[in-house]
């Protein structure tokens, strides 16, 4: 009977060892899966940071383009004002030349 109880104990111990081994394998597999998921998340985070960096650079470039456009518009407004003054001066000269032509015609008669 002692041999039977020793055999039963050894059998129980072997079953316990297999179940512990199975639990360890499950835990190791779960940890491996978690490490893979964490690695993917870190890579995704670094990619997000890279995309944010690109977006920031693009925004700075757009801001520079907007500032350049504003400067160009200001310059164009100044040029338009100068052209308007020149057009008014030309118009006055044309009117004065018409008056001069009339006066010359009147003098020559």
TrEMBL record:
Record's keyword annotation contains Membrane: yes
Keyword terms: Lysosome, Membrane
Residue stretches in coiled coil: none
Localisation: Lysosome membrane
GO cellular component: BORC complex; lysosomal membrane
Pfam families per record: BORCS7
Membrane is among the record's keywords: yes
Chief location of this protein within or outside the cell: membrane
Classification via InterPro entries: BORCS7 (IPR032143)
UniProt similarity note: Belongs to the BORCS7 family.
Name the UniProt record assigns to this protein: BLOC-1-related complex subunit 7
Taxonomic placement: Eukaryota, Metazoa, Chordata, Craniata, Vertebrata
């Amino acid at each position: 009977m002692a041999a039977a109880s020793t055999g039963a104990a050894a059998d129980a111990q072997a079953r316990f060892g297999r179940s512990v081994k199975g639990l360890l394998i499950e835990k190791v597999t779960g940890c491996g899966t978690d490490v893979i998921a964490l690695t993917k998340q870190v890579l995704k985070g670094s990619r997000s940071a890279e995309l944010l960096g690109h977006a920031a650079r693009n925004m700075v470039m757009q801001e520079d383009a907007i500032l350049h456009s504003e400067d160009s518009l200001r310059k164009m407004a100044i040029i338009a004002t100068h052209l308007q003054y020149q057009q008014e001066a030309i118009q006055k000269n044309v009117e004065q030349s018409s008056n001069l032509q009339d006066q010359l015609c009147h003098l020559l008669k």
